[in-house]
Amino acid sequence: MNLEDVKVVKELLSTPQHIVIVPHKNPDGDAIGSTLALYHYLKGLGLEAVVISQNDYPKFLKWMPGSETIVNFEWDMTSARTLIEKATLIFTLDFNHLSRVDKMQPFLEEASATFIMIDHHQEPSDYAKVTYSDTNIGSTCEMVYNLIEAMGDLNKISNDIANCLYTGIMTDTGSFKFPSTTSKTHRVVADLIDKGAKNTEIHNRVYDTNTPDRLHLLGCALKNMVILEEYRTAYITLSQEELDTHNFKKGDTEGFVNYGLTLKGICFAVIFIENKEEKIIKISLRSEGNFSVNQYARKHFQGGGHVNAAGGKSNLSLRETTDYFESTLVKYKDDLILSCGQKGSL
Ligand SMILES: [Mn+2]
């Protein structure tokens, strides 16, 4: 974080403020972890703050300290709108474009508050007075740690802050596995453990939450996996009917896409999930190496994200979507083989 920005944030936080902190829609561990950590930090400074989430978030994050204070925009629109109108300072965390908060977007656009963005996605838009954007950092939680460090406040990291930040760093780095995991990341989590983060407990609470339905759905997804060795690619489909058979609940398919990458010689993995209600196919894309699924998703599937993790959608049928997907691969063949270089062959 540059010194000029730190100075601006310090100045803003040295006067009383009505602060609203916003994660992106469908918040994940990093979004909830970073917003709640910042919430606890600001409260600790004696400031008034509240987290407003566009919609609900997974049960496996509800143990997080402060989670009971989160205002759900969908459920409590009147108080959420009042809080946004009254806000003097709005932090937007783990996203960089206001369209990522969906129905909250017009209210944020109308707000008179000063905006501060902390985020690690590509191509930030220009709505904030302070834009702390760094695509090299694996999680927004690590960036919130950097902010607290730059403020000279590492000694103010409480148990609660440590547990929130640890959760987001763990989930966004794939448990410290992705290339965005640096020695600094490990130094940060080491410090967080020293400051009270319960690493084993967090891991259990976030990951060991399977239901029989979810495991059976995973079995179905893995059975459906198509492996295109020539293109170093594996993809999974799940139809609405298959989801219904396994009593699909939101979040059940989280992480399924990554199984493709556990195959030797595969460095591009995709999952296509039919959503009859929204009449779209939801798509998650992952890669290893320098094949950019962000660019690929932008070009072919109305989406985007990071180099190695992105999302998108298709308005075609499931079958038409995968046919189109397969037809695009030819021109990426060389890139995929190159990207896969170090992984060996199947
Ligand atoms: Mn993130």
TrEMBL record:
The lineage of its organism: Bacteria, Pseudomonadati, Bacteroidota, Flavobacteriia, Flavobacteriales. InterPro entries: DDH_dom, DHH_sf, DHHA1_dom, Oligoribo/pAp-PDE_c-di-AMP_PDE. Residues 18-169 form the DDH domain. It comes from Cerina litoralis. This is Bifunctional oligoribonuclease/PAP phosphatase NrnA. GO terms for molecular function: nucleic acid binding. Residues 246-315 form the DHHA1 domain.
